[in-house]
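Deadline looming. Please check this record:
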Amino acid sequence: MRFSKKLNSISLGQGQGPRAEAMMRGKWVFFQNCHLSPSWMPTLERLIENIDSDKVHRDFRLWLTSMPSPKFPVPILQNSSKMTVEPPRGIKANLLKSYTGYNDDFLNSCTKT
């Protein structure tokens, strides 16, 4: 099975909570920018606390990204594996990191306007 069929992702923000909640029964779920939806964080905390292993797929995984935020639920952080990505130092290193992520297929798929 292709990875894209296993992964559901959404960038959180205004009005995205119900869509994100519906994804919680999928296989791999990726919620980006949790800090942009502070009013939905208590709901996310409740959803995670109430995950029923009989109702989710056996390969279910939940990935969250967020900037530091006082609204992010502490229990989620305490019960999660955390990964931190530090930005490269300096503009040259930052640009090099950005550009090394692009491959020829991506660059050739861009259209000129």
